[in-house]
Amino acid sequence: MSDIKYLETHEWYLINEEVITVGISDFAQNELGDIVYVTLPEVGQDFEKGAPVVEVEATKTVAEAYAPMDCTITEVNSQLETEPETINNDPCGDGWMFKAKVNAIDDSGMSYQEYETFVS
Amino acid sequence: MDKRTTQLHSYHASQNAKFIDFGDWSMPFSYEGTLKEHDVVRNSSGFFDVSHMGRLEIDYSELDKISSLICSDLINIPMNKALYSIFTNENGNALDDVIFWKFEDKIILIPNASNASKIKSHLVDHKVDFIDKSLETVLIAVQGPRTIELINDRFEIPEKFSTAKSDNFMYARTGYTGEDGIEIMASNAEAGSLISFLIEKGIKPCGLGSRDTLRLEASLPLYGFELTEDITPVEASLSWTITNDHDFLGSDRIKTQLQDGNHKILKKFTIESRKIARTETIGMSGDIKGIVTSGNFSPILNKSIGFILFENKPPQNLIEFDIRGNLIEGNIVNKRFLS
Predict the structure, then answer these.
(1) How far apart are CA B243 and CA B70, in angstroms?
(2) Contact assignment for A34 to B35 by CB distance below 8 Å
């Protein structure tokens, strides 16, 4: 398993063999404020890199989380349907959004240090 | 251009407030989070720095002139009362919604931050004299069910919608959250000690984020969204404010609308989910089109709520919203959101 990587669009992903786990960064949840609703994808749905996968409703605004690479959804975090605030409380842990089988590997995300520099 | 900040900006910054641009102003959006602050005001007590709003002092010699510019009866409401009203233009449309505080010796007029300059020009145009107290004072709204018990050792508490004053403060038992509380005008010199007093009492600072979710839940309009220069008080479902029996700017059009009922109309709605119909979302009631003016999540109702402006009287309560390409159903509600 590699380290968590980050995208300029504020998602994080973790590659474990052929499966990625994806969520949004602590910076992103903090910018959005209280998250009240998420629209999750369906298992089996295909997404191309950069396509919107999850819609995140916060009291302040609505945002989307994008696919970090071409992938097929294998699992969604259904806890978020009833407890979307989990993303605020633990964005890179229990607040993960979906897992997906990688169809075209693209591990070009930023390291934590690079991302910290990017957002500061 | 640098944004304006209130006298209490350094306090907000010291509390790690997140700031948001609001018109010409940089104001605290939240401290610990909008939903937490919402909860504090619904269950305990919180305070808002609303010093970005205007504060104009007006002498009673100007009463008749000012009365001809608003839709409500400022003349006959008793002394030491507060009055919510709307400045209208010659078409009866809303220039601003404001609060008046009547004291024995003067009237305080509180326009919205975004409209303060416009209202001042409007008063000058209509030869209404006033003294602008905005730069030398702060305005703090203390709101929530525990507010009165927490502050009554320092403030003599007036009846609801009434005003009072002490050596250092002018205040009224009014607010914009649907909760009990008072709004306090203090000199800049007193601002720091007022905030210290509130904090000592355990009253928490709250930002504009929760002020917006609270006012929406309390079914209260916000200028720039529900109210604009393109809508009359009748169309904004604020006919209850029209108590001025004399002629006022645009009163002919307003009277016509009250009689014939043929006009656009603002309604409240709920959606039985947390999916938010945000500002400018289109909603259809039958073949009558509406546009959402404000929409957000209601923490108390645990669903989405908002205001929608229909082109004419909606034929049914069911609304079909187009939320980013998805058809979502909602319902018009005629009662207040909060019972």
Answers:
(1) 10
(2) yes
